[in-house]
Design brief:
The complex is a heterodimer.
Chain A lengths: L13 H4 L12 E6 L11 E7 L2 E8 L7 H7 L5 H5 L7 H16 L5 H30 L7 H22 L8 E2 L2 E2 L7 H24 L2 H7 L7 H7 L4 H5 L6 H4 L20 H25 L22 E9 L2 E9 L5 E7 L1 H6 L2 H4 L5 H11 L3 H5 L1
Helix pairs in contact in A: 4-5, 5-6, 5-12, 5-15, 6-7, 7-12, 12-15
Chain B lengths: L2 H12 L4 E2 L9 E5 L5 H10 L5 E9 L5 E9 L4 E10 L3 E2 L8 H12 L3 E2 L33
Parallel strand pairs in B: 2-5, 6-7
Antiparallel strand pairs in B: 1-2, 3-4, 4-5
The chains are: A alpha+beta, B alpha/beta.
């Protein structure tokens, strides 16, 4: 399996990861440690074969695929009406994102108009989803880093309490808490129920105040800073070369956000900042996400203020699964999800199903960086770094 | 570097036109180029070094049945906002690997090998990434039925 020397420098640590264990008492003996796939801090099912020298990681072999369902084959077997609901199962903690990516691709090839109200609703749910997803990330990441953060579960429980409020909003809107089926080709499936707008405003304002508390709790904690600052640095070059996206890219000093640089669904009409941090470490990624919370909440307020009246879909309601036909063509649509660029490369042959559909999972590309940044760190840091990457294995394995 | 310069440079060096990404989307910032497979690696190096496309987005393939496989790779120049989708028809042959140019090609090519069975020559560690190592067949090939049985997995 190992092919030492074939491509020097291409996979740092991999050749080491396959080397035979050497035992001794010299202080630099090597041993191989398995982590996962059922490890509590693996954020899903992820396995790493770590080669250690003492407590220092010298080689990493990340193993993924435990949650593989071959979404791309499913996409070829299901119609444009059926698949958006399934798309939400790629990144199941940010289901709105992948649904939107898929319908955007189909709409772009088919030149399907989307009413303005639907475009605004899409922005609204995408930003609420970002808040919910970042809350999940912050809670689980702090849980990973454990006792140093005031008992470990403190921030976790706070975040889940607030995330629950966003999920309640989604439940009122779509009837589902995690996997929504909200988007469809031509618009959205549901409109806001009565009283929802007020509840939404209250919720995001509440979360806005809570974020101040989280920041006070974490950023005045010296141990939190030691565990995150200067740990897991991704350089600008590495970030671009591997193709990481979202908070990882912006945490490495690259100001790139699709909502700003390739706007879709009327994002150009909203006022928000693109937070950037230069350090590239876990702390920088943390800072980027904390600022994104507030920007998302600002966008939510703007949508609610300016939400246009009108229809929510340019197509009739769903009556049969073969109802939507997309002309021949191909496109690549992409959406700035909570974890970065979620892309869908779609090839249509003119039928009711795509000829080929490729997911560019943000988590897949982000996780690919792990083998490059772990070597040199301690085992405990591996947990902090993995958490700061925020992988969702439904999207890594698709 | 802007899109017009990039289009001109590609025409000069490779003699192929760079067009809008799809017939329905003629935007200068999303370019689509087809190159012969012999120049696949050369083009990637050119895109990275001369067009400034240092960001690796993704690499995949399309199975065109009798016409064989087509590689699709997208790289970007984030500063200039140029997205470049490069394609090459490879038939049933192995493909040259881009791992020496973009580190992001590593996992993407492994995925492509896993799901399409395309061998990438020069890849340092070409093994399955999503499916188990002992899986038979490559699911994204058009001749692979959705309900193909696979004991003991299902």
């Amino acid at each position: 399996m190992s092919s030492e020397g074939a491509m020097p420098g291409a996979r740092p640590g991999l050749a080491e990861a396959h080397k035979v264990i050497e035992l001794g008492y010299g202080g630099n003996e090597r041993f191989v440690m398995n982590m996962g796939p059922q490890h509590p801090s693996a954020h899903g099912v992820f396995r790493m074969i770590l080669t250690l020298e003492g407590e220092i990681i010298v080689g990493v072999d990340p193993i993924i695929g435990y949650l593989h369902r071959c979404h791309e084959k499913l996409g070829e077997a299901l119609t444009y009406v059926q698949y958006p609901t399934i798309a939400s199962k790629t990144d199941y903690v940010a289901a709105m994102t992948s649904e939107l990516t898929y319908v955007l691709a189909a709409e772009r090839i088919g030149q399907v108009e989307v009413p303005r109200r639907a475009q605004y609703l899409r922005v609204l749910v995408a930003e609420l989803q970002r808040v919910a997803s970042h809350l999940l990330w912050l809670g689980t990441w702090c849980l990973d880093m454990g006792g140093a953060l005031g008992g470990g579960a403190t921030v976790f429980l706070y975040c889940f309490r607030e995330r629950e409020m966003v999920l309640d909003l989604f439940e009122a809107l779509t009837g589902a808490r995690l996997l929504y089926g909200f988007h469809q080709v031509g618009g959205t499936r549901y409109d806001l129920p009565e009283g929802w707008t007020g509840a939404c405003r209250e919720t995001v304002d509440h979360i806005d105040r809570r974020i101040d508390e989280y920041e006070a709790l974490l950023e005045e904690n010296a141990i939190f800073k030691v565990r995150t600052q200067g740990v897991g640095v991704i350089s600008r070059e590495l970030a671009m070369d591997v193709g990481v996206a979202g908070p990882l890219l912006r945490g490495s000093g690259i100001a790139f956000d699709l909502r700003r640089h390739d706007p879709y669904s009327s994002y150009e009409e909203f006022d928000f900042r693109v937070p950037v941090e230069a350090a590239g470490d876990c702390y920088a990624r943390y800072r980027v996400r904390m600022q994104e919370f507030r920007e998302s909440i600002r966008i939510v307020h703007q949508v609610l203020e300016r939400l246009p009246a009108g229809p929510i879909s340019s197509r009739p309601g769903v009556k049969s699964v073969g109802q939507v036909k997309i002309p021949k063509g191909e496109t690549y649509s992409r959406v700035e999800g909570p974890r970065g660029e979620v892309g869908c490369y779609l090839v249509s042959d003119g039928g009711t199903k795509p000829y080929r559909m490729k997911w560019r999972g943000a988590s897949f590309s982000n996780l690919a960086v792990i083998g490059h940044i772990l070597p040199g760190h301690k085992v405990a840091d591996a947990v902090a770094i993995l958490g700061s990457v925020d992988p969702v294995f439904g999207e890594v394995d698709r | 570097m802007n899109a017009e310069q990039a289009i001109r440079l590609i025409q000069e060096r490779f003699g192929v036109p760079a067009t809008g990404e799809s017939p329905n989307r003629l935007e200068p910032l999303h370019l689509l180029v087809s190159v012969p497979k012999e120049r696949w690696v050369e083009f990637a190096r050119f895109a990275r070094e001369e067009l400034g496309c240092r960001y690796f987005s993704h690499l995949t393939a399309v199975d065109w049945k009798a016409e064989g496989f087509e590689l699709v790779c997208r790289v970007e120049n984030l500063e200039a906002g140029i997205g470049l989708t490069v394609k090459a028809r490879i038939g049933q042959d192995p493909a040259p690997s881009l791992t020496g140019i973009y580190r992001g090609a590593d996992w993407m090519e492994r995925e492509c090998y896993d799901l399409f069975g395309i061998r990438f020559e020069g890849h340092p560690d070409l093994r399955r990434i999503l499916l188990p190592q002992d899986w038979e067949g490559h699911p994204l090939r058009k001749d692979y039925a959705v309900d193909t049985p696979h004991p003991p997995y299902r």
